[in-house]
Amino acid sequence: MVDRLVLVDAGGLGAKASLASLFAMIWLNNFPSGLASRVYSRFILFNPANRDPDHARYSVAVLKGNGGKKAFRQGKGAAVSKMPGSALRRVTHDSLIIWGEDDKLFPVGHGEAASKLMPNASFVRIPQAGHLPLMDQPDIFNDAVVGFLTEGK
Fold it and tell me: What 8-state DSSP symbol labels residue 49?
């Protein structure tokens, strides 16, 4: 049973990647390597130096493993599909939507719009953060999540 829901830069709330980020994603998914991962980091982080090296290595290892490219290929280049507004209005659980203000994959406006459709949602915009605000601004991110999960307890 879900009590509370936390969504972080969720592509299902609206995915519209730039052509450059799409190219980097295709390169990484088809030819996984450290170089492709470093290039892709420019699109998922405000400051690519914030990427945990273990995350980069893990991402490449998953893509090189059996089935690692499946989500990308099954989605015909998109790992997610946008949820319709009618579905978002039915999400009645307390929800927190967190978005990196500088997300180059999914614009922050998608998260803001979704938070207005979901009846019990709150929205946190994290400055100087990209698609992975947990890496760009870990303290702000953690404070938002812990505050939301412990609220009223």
Answer: G
- pTM, two decimals, is 0.86
- The number of folded domains in the chain is 2
Show the domain range for 36: 19-74
pLDDT of residue 67: 76
Quick: pLDDT tens for 112-136: 999 999 999 999 999 999 999 999 9
24 and 50 share a domain? yes
* Alpha helix stretches (DSSP H) within the chain: 19-30, 34-44, 53-64, 70-74, 85-89, 108-117, 133-136, 138-150
87 with 53, same domain?
Answer: no
